[in-house]
Amino acid sequence: MPDNRISANFNQADREAVMQAIATIREKLPFLVDLTTEERRTMLKMGDKSRAFVSKALEVATQNPNFLPRSFDVEEMRQDLSLYEALYPVLLSLTQLQELVDDTYIATGSEAYAAALSVYNYAKACGDVAGLDGVIDEMGRRFYRRSKKKQPESVAS
Questions:
Q1: How far apart are the first and last CA of the chain?
Q2: Count of the separate structural domains present in the chain
Q3: Which end of the chain is less enclosed by CB atoms within 10 A, N or C?
């Protein structure tokens, strides 16, 4: 069997605890929004370079509120920036966790699939184990591919 990078169990109690922790995180972030693809595409994005600009603009708005229209809510801007800053370490932590879960998920799937291929190849090579022909044929359907050649069209006369 190929290199086995992970060998672990994730029992039901631990799964339930993790799912409860995720539920708690969602509960503590009731303001989260779900954007559509179009909304994501058309929204302004604030990155590292824009952070300084936004902070400066907030300072200007705070110190000079007279030139702004009455409808402009400086406190809402301050609150948005504060939430943005507060979410950053959470985003970073969750992104790192997601990458670890993704990598582990891919690695365990790869290891299980590689082991299954070994079983299949050993079973095919052995060939004389009674009662396995049907199972081997069934497993072999996984690799069956239809010919991509286009059938010649018949010419109508």
A1: 60
A2: 1
A3: C
